[in-house]
Amino acid sequence: MDSQWAYYRDTWAEINLDHISYNIEEMRRHIGDDVKVFAVVKANAYGHGDEEVAREALNSGVSYLAVAFLDEALALRNKGISAPILVLGISRPEDVRIAAENQISLTVFQQQWLREAKELLPSDVRLAIHVKLDTGMGRLGVRNRDELKGLETLIKKDPRFNIEGVYTHFATADELDFTYFERQMERFKEMVSWFEARPEFIHTGNSAAALIHPESHHNAVRMGISMYGLTPSPEIEPVLPFRLKPAFSLHTKLVHVKKISKGERISYGATYEGAEDEWIGTLPIGYADGWIRKLQGQEVLVEGQRVPIVGRICMDQCMVRLPRELPIGTVVTLIGRQGESYISVNEVAEKLQTINYEITCMAAARIPRVYMKNGKVKRIINSLLKQV
Ligand code: PMH
Questions:
Q1: Label partner for 43 (CA 20 to 30 A): which of 51, 55, 70, 313?
Q2: 66 strand-pairing partners
Q3: pLDDT tens digit string along 45-72?
Q4: What is the DSSP string of 120-148?
Q5: Could you give the CA distance from residue 175 to residue 33 in angstroms, rounded to a whole number?
Q6: Which residue CA neighbors atom 2 of ligand 1 most closely?
Q7: 164 with 130: CB under 8 angstroms?
Q8: Ligand 1: distance of its center to the CA of 384 in Å?
Q9: What is the C-alpha to C-alpha distance for residues 348 and 246, in angstroms, rounded to an integer?
Q10: Ramachandran region of residue 218, left (φ > 0), alpha (ψ -120 to 50) or beta?
Q11: What local confidence, expressed as pLDDT, does residue 243 receive?
């Protein structure tokens, strides 16, 4: 068997590619034919796996991929993805050549960066750039007219650089108070009017803006969290224009089952004590998988029933209290559905007092990703064994 298809520990994340394509198709219907979709596949596609998500997104009609930094873009090229890719974060000027040679578009907003890049880019290569405007996120981007005009002048005189896009990022698009969002929109319109020539792609929207602020669409949106079927925030969930279908679920199996007597203890620190005679199961997943120690007490699903994690979560394992003796090999679902019961990414995020984005990103690379398409396993990627 091809080693990337194999895994030898019964813990896996299942990625439903049909849900990814459904979420994209619904988004495309919502924004209309004139607006293109950039699929945001940074951070290994928010933990879902960059290659398979990128392929599914491209098959579902997205025009562009977006990643955080150049290494992520090159990783996609190494996996045979030839679609346009935009690096959303900053890249080093000294890496401009490798970006251009691999047809990777870069985010640019500093004149000094451009001066250095101009020294290093060979005469026969072309680099597509998207100019980033800081309209209120305060992270990256041009902030005033002089900076923008300076950049434009430096680029205009140089045929190697093409301003293909201009964009900004919203700080509060996922909130129901629109005040700050509207201020950013106004500033963006004003700044775009300073360009001598309008770039091909004008994009502002992340998922939240794409979903609930049609006036922000311009001619492209950058779709991240909603492509994975997760709401940008619980606050806007009630006003979403279509139902999102989560693509990520997480499973393991009981590897050991035993009865403990009242008073016997479980795990590091011996903090959990059986209140009576209890059945305890051991799961082969722990904090090194991203199932962190703060998830002690979180429930998981066994035979469609909720059972609690008891005692401290270890690096590679944790224990659950079972309702009765269950066979080794019983499937345990940490995120996802079993019958009528469901544990959402949002539930786990709430338990950790964080956002759903963080939960899927946290699922460690050592967990194999099993890709489902049309109800069947399409591919399994085990990043531990891929190189063997
Ligand atoms: N565009 C940029 C520049 C981003 O940073 C992100 C997400 C997106 C689009 C997609 O947003 P969405 O997932 O809400 O659709 N960036 C981040 C971030 O830096 N921290 O959390 C999400």
A1: 313
A2: 40, 86
A3: 999 999 999 999 999 999 999 999 999 9
A4: HS-TT--EEEEEEB-SSS-SSSB-SHHHH
A5: 26
A6: 169
A7: yes
A8: 28
A9: 14
A10: left
A11: 98
Taking the mean position of all CA atoms in its chain, how far away is CA 51?
12
**Where along the chain do its domains lie?**
34-228, 248-381
Q: Which residues contact 80 (CB under 8 A, 6 or more apart)?
A: none
Q: Please answer whether residues 211 and 229 qualify as being in contact, where contact means their C-beta atoms are separated by less than 8 angstroms.
A: no
CATH architecture classification, 34-228: Alpha-Beta Barrel (3.20)
Counting Cα atoms < 13 Å in the Cβ hemisphere of 339 gives 10
Bridge partners for 67 per DSSP: 87
| Structure tokens given for 76 | 């996609």
CATH topology of domain 248-381: Lyase, Ornithine Decarboxylase; Chain A, domain 1 (2.40.37)
**CB within 8 Å of 20: residues ≥ 6 apart:** 48, 53, 56, 57, 60, 227, 228, 229, 247
CA distances from 47 to 52, 53, 243 (A): 11, 10, 21
* Residue 357 beta carbon below 6 angstroms from any ligand 1 atom: yes
Token pair 């899927």 is at which residue? Answer: 360
* Ligand 1 pocket check for 127: Cβ under 6 Å: no
DSSP helix/strand/coil, 302: strand
- Which residues, other chains included, contact 145 with Cβ-Cβ below 8 Å and sequence gap of 6+? 191, 194
| 311-364 pLDDT tens trace | 999 999 999 999 999 999 999 999 999 999 999 999 999 999 999 999 999 999
286 contacts 366 by C-beta, under 8 angstroms:
no
The amino acid at residue 107 is T
Decide whether any atom of ligand 1 lies within 6 Å of the 203 Cβ.
Answer: no
Q: What is the position in ligand 1's atom list of the atom closest to the CA of 46? A: 13
- Which residues of the chain register pLDDT less than 70? 1-5, 387-388
Annotated active-site residue 268? The verdict is yes
Verify whether residue 132 is a known catalytic residue: no
d(CA 110, CA 92): 11
